[in-house]
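ugh finaly. both done.
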Amino acid sequence: MKIDYLAEAHLLKEKIVSIRRKIHEHPELGNQEFNTTALIKAILAPVGYKIERPLATGLVATLEAPHSSKNTVAFRADIDALPLVEQTNLPFASCNELMHACGHDFHTAGAIGTALILAKYKDLLPHPVKFIFQPDEEGDGGAKRLIDAHALDNVDAVFGCHLDPSLAFGVIGTAKHEMYAASGPMTLTIKGKSCHAASPTEGVNSLVAAAAAITKINEMYKTNYENKGAIISVCTLKTGEALNVIPQESTFTIILRAFGYDKIHECQKRIIDIAEKEVAKFGATLLASYIDGYPGVINNETETAFVEEIAASLFGTQNVTDVTPRFTTEDFGYYIMKKKGAFYHIGIGGNEPLHSSHFAPNEDILPLMIALGAKILFEYRVTK
């Protein structure tokens, strides 16, 4: 039996639009998505999905397939909103001071629609499917915590998508390798010696030392990394408490973006070396701390080619395009550090960027999202 994925998706459109609007009207921050989680469970449990709750919010919904291996194909949808006041004037606008301004309401509703099609044709499934409704993508990263809680057990490959206002409506954007950059937050604290502003030679001005270090770091970026696959941005500087007191301590933060942790670590080492040498000229000392942020998204070539093939079969090759790797980041990368997989974009056109308080995509994109997700999950062949 051949499934008409687009026809099935359009049959679900009214239902999925209603679900999307309910989620949009009642957004929840990361790790607080209790009502969203309950809504997803109430829809998917009755149609045969096994529901697991590895974390306090979010869930994993698995549909077993008859006569198949345990190897599973997974699909991830993020469910959290942003701390942003909506200004769309939609009749279903947010009822609180949060907003789904990054499309997660579409991702969640679209994944529910895909899950409903798979449940309808469960007897045809060649392998189990798993939907990972992930909390806290916008915050500390729910992906890693779900993986640590065994959400990828028995998974052979994992897929995910994101709305993209920079692509024309209905165009599918892919990248066979680097798609999103890794992140490396840093905090550098300069310790000097406080004194009265009228006697500056009696102290060590941590602010002046910090300013010198920041200037040198920025010069390093311009000389060695600009247009070479890395971004180094100083974003905050906190120092001083009084107009007439030399500050004893100054702290500034840096965000690094590069394609892969190796480049991040290289930048972090150079920044610390430069900052230590610069502040020492003023008699100050440096305390540096840093972590590995999101790993970015580096797709698998085979799985990306598969997504392109499926998208072309549904929408035509003219509606499938390469996307330029970007320095924003995404915690989907944690999944494909562990398993094969691919992340792709779905074009929505329009003038409003992601994270805008006026962000209001055309809901006609939902059937396209649903059909593409369903065909990917049905037709991917797991490793035996």
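ok and the 2nd:
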Amino acid sequence: MKTLEGKVAIVTGSGRGLGRAHAKALAAAGAAVVVNDPGVTVNGQGREARPADDVVAEIRADGGQAVANHASVSDWAGAEALIDTAVAEFGKLDILVNNAGILRDRMSFNMTEDEWDAVIDVHLKGHFATSRFAAGHWRARAKQGEAVSGRIINTTSEAGLYGHMGQVNYAAAKAGIIGMTFVMTQELARLGVTVNAVSPRAITRMTGEDPENPERLATTGLPEHVSPLVVYLASNAAAHITGQVFVNYAGTLKLVKGFPAVAEQHVDGAFTQDSIAVAVEALFENESSRLEAFVP
């Protein structure tokens, strides 16, 4: 029996790149897959049914089950309809892989309102909207007495973990996805749902495609190199793993724990204007908290 036999999965943004690799890997592991992609450009322009339809055809040609959905996850009603598609076509939903994304890179002092809104809408709102309706589906099943084993696998980025110049909108959205992951982990645990985040590196059209470059291949990898982690987190074997953030690329897998305290200062009572200045400077006196920009 395949690892995900009998499971139903949605992968957003799965017409190309990472999403396509995840959809095909989930299907190969036995899951029925809703391939969601509106077929937009890297910066979110236009629409085209072909990318999602082609992935569905590939999965079916390999003997798997798949249907296409062309909704934008940034549309609230579209996100609800996406969950409904999985239920209507396959009877339920077990796995939600939030992967859809676009880029509108610009230095912060030049960024337009539209460039900010578009990226936040697709990444952050798009992750939440689908998760919200998936969570509602699992909650309804749990209230009916069903034992639920749901999975949400979010896509964050090292830009969200460490920052990346020229991507303030993208980094903010990806950092927000980590916060959302932690909150929904707590909210959905009692329903039998795990929520994790993966920060992938892969050579795709969003990062610039040059798979023939051996140095870049070794430090970045291909979309297919990330999909085994997604399949594992989607499986019953990973039921004990939730609220975690992973960095995965090529042959590297990292577990990331964010924002530990590296220094503390205390005074009796409360800080005054004078004592706070002394305390702040004292925070940077040890090696682990040197005064420098936060970089990976």
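summary for the 2nd one i guess: The chain has nine helices and eight strands.
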